[in-house]
Amino acid sequence: MRARTADAPPPADDPLAYLALARAPGVGPRRAAALLQAFGSAAAAVAAGRRGAWPALPRWTVDRSRAAGRLVDLAAAEREFRRGARVGARLLTPADAVYPAAWRPEDDWPLALWVRGAWPAAVTGPVPVAVAIVGPRRASPEAQRFASELAAASCRAGAWVISGLAFGVDAAAHRGAILAARAGAHAATLAVLAGGADRAHPAAHRDLARAMLDAGGGIVAAAPIGAAPATGAFPVRNRWIAGLASVVAVVEAGPRSGALHTAAAALELGREVRTTPARPWDAHAAGSLALLRDGAAPLLEPDDAWLGLPAGVRPVPPRAERTVRLPPPPWDAILSAAPIDVDGAITATGWDVGAVLAALEAGVVAGWAARLPGGRYRRR
Hints:
Layout: H1 15-23, H2 28-39, H3 42-50, H4 62-69, H5 74-86, E1 90-92, E2 113-117, H6 121-124, E3 130-134, H7 141-156, E4 160-163, H8 169-182, E5 189-193, H9 206-214, E6 218-221, H10 233-243, E7 247-250, H11 259-268, E8 272-275, H12 286-293, E9 297-298, H13 303-306, H14 331-334, E10 340-341, H15 342-349, H16 353-366, E11 369-372, E12 376-379
Parallel strand pairs: 3-4, 3-7, 4-5, 5-6, 7-8, 8-9
Antiparallel strand pairs: 1-2, 2-6, 10-12, 11-12
Helix pairs in contact: 1-3, 1-5, 2-3, 3-4, 7-8, 10-11
């Protein structure tokens, strides 16, 4: 990018103008939205600010607005842009076609996003084909295993997995998605960070972040390149996670888990919330129990996450290859496509009822028998 002189105005829809507005102290998305409406473009708003011509903004007097406008720093925005390019990140603004379709600055969505790796249309469309999987950092091994299975099932079905790269459930979800992507799934995983897109947080997850990118996933953040997470940034980050998904799956949330912030944001945004049932006396899952009480759908098996996607965007899971298993004697001669009841099987084999039921149920598990309503069985 060619260096910009101090007084040169930015061209229309210049991403640097959006970045400069995003970094202007105190401006924020809502005041930036008011400026965009007043001046027609980010470039015009920046130019007006530099000459002290901003009008009064929400909860700001004219004098306060004009003082803020004079602080807009295009040179600093250009330096950040160059830092982003050096770490392989690209800048997205509301002027870009791939900025999330449902996000608007006036609704407090960020004015500038940094993305590394993938940024799929499945996530940025009006109705994302994506599942957010969130939960506590100190999750039980069982919860982490379930989160990994949820993520893998979602990716195999073509739905992206969104999470926050934290310890516990987040990391397990990312790892499950990575395994599915490496095995040929058509979707991968996206991490939403509270700090800079080039700075994995926690630092212990640098290798995990690299593995996500290597598996076709992506990392997105609204903070400046190189920035550590700011105080209070995580609840805002959690809202962005909910905003990039159609379903939020909460795994084993405690009474004060940050995952509940994500669930609350999801409900505010009209997303579906699902969560894992738990024992009523288990304090580690009190948050999940509260969500169930308030109407969240239960997560009972891995496919329950992606099946919560809206019907219009629900992916079709790949057909599993099934190995044909032949029943052993005497069932190879007894079972057919026509159902048989237990009494018929007792007559055909001469066995007692316990032996017949044990053999047929073993056949269901092995895959050569199918159990039907009414206590009947047939050959699979």
